[in-house]
Amino acid sequence: MTRNGTSTPTVADMVKAVTTPPLPLRITAYDGSAVGPRDAGLELHVKSPRALNYLATAPGDLGLARAYITGELIASGVEPGNPYAAFDSLQACKEHLRRPTPAGMRTISRLLRHEGLHRPEVPEIETPPAWRRALAGARPHTEAADKDTVSSHYDRSNRFYSLVLGPSMTYTCALFDSPDTSLEDAQRRKINLVLDKLDLAPGQRLLDIGCGWGSVLVAAARRGIRAIGVTLSEPQARWANAWLAREGLDDLAQARVIDYREVPERDFDGICSLGMMEHVGVRHYDEYFRIMFSLLRPGGRLLNHQITRRDTSQRNGAGAFVGRYIFPDGELAAPGVVMTHLHDAGLEIVHAENQRQHYALTLEHWCRNLQAHWDEAVESGGSQTALLWGLYMAGARWNFERNNIQIHQFLAVRPDEDTGGHWYPLRPWWDA
């Protein structure tokens, strides 16, 4: 094909060089070329040569994400706040990828030379790779590095998160009675399940590690439980403490900006950790659970709620996209690995359950919220953040639905040798 009277290849020529027909989507480009069926459910428009540079310098999910959140790659036929419908086509497209022939490589090289191949600046919301942060002194999972990575994820905008999460401000998997259950009812049920499993009486003491915006603190204080929440995000702590004050519960509960490794109190009756373990790092699981053991009184209970891999054949580390944009230094382990570390720390597991399907439903609701409040979300968090969160949450929903990732609750107890081995009831004491 020719362009402007020359034999310069088109974007469509480049796509044909690395794929086999028929494509499950349509690709159009700034140069007027197109490939793929006209009636495809998904159309990707390559808006500029800058998009090509993103794709060429970071092939795969990372390059696609960079082009998408900067607006250089436009997906038609899907909502920006809820691009879930694109993932089946994108997954199917991977089956059509092929290694280019020598002639195909020449086509790609000529196009990239014509467009001026270079490494473009990465989007402003992208976190540097782990090796670069380590060179700068931020060794993964030290207290300083954890504070930086947590801030990169949670300190974007409280207003933005309120639009996505809804009034509960709960950023973990909800618990649905049915697909028709509202998000608020499902989050309330999840929090009640956590507190019911811990079975704390009024006046007893709870530590919430990674307390977020304080939803568990508020619910615990309403039961008369004395609660401390810890987070590395100052905006989260301010929100949580303001919420407790509005409810008249600040004499019972408080949120602190402190690393869990620095909590001075001991002998808690219960500890919960909801959605925090993703940040810990698998190599630090032993340390983490040993600290949980030391913070609990004998007979005290730990409720650990975390995203997991499906099995040990999957890698622990996050992919390039998730590692740069969502959970820097984040790692996931298979549920059996988590259980081993819990036992090795001296804790006894009482109960475990997989809530994978519930997280898929939760993410569906969050995407709907973002879609419904799109203009406000862009105003409060910026267009890149809004596009990123729609992409991330829709992709996470797709993976939870297909059992590529799971989420587990583990209920464990610190043994109390003074009770002769009877440190919890014979049968579950909570309403499942």
From TrEMBL:
UniProt entry tagged with the keyword Transferase: yes
BP term (GO), one: methylation
Signal sequence segment: none
Alphabetical list of Pfam families matching this protein: CMAS (PF02353)
InterPro entries: CFA/CMAS (IPR050723), CMAS (IPR003333), SAM-dependent_MTases_sf (IPR029063)
GO molecular function: methyltransferase activity
Domain of life (superkingdom): Bacteria
Keyword annotations of the record: Lipid metabolism, Methyltransferase, S-adenosyl-L-methionine, Transferase
Protein family per UniProt: Belongs to the CFA/CMAS family.
PANTHER family: CYCLOPROPANE-FATTY-ACYL-PHOSPHOLIPID SYNTHASE (PTHR43667:SF1)
Name of this chain's protein: S-adenosyl-l-methionine-dependent methyltransferase
Taxonomic source organism: Actinomyces glycerinitolerans
Lineage: Bacteria, Bacillati, Actinomycetota, Actinomycetes, Actinomycetales
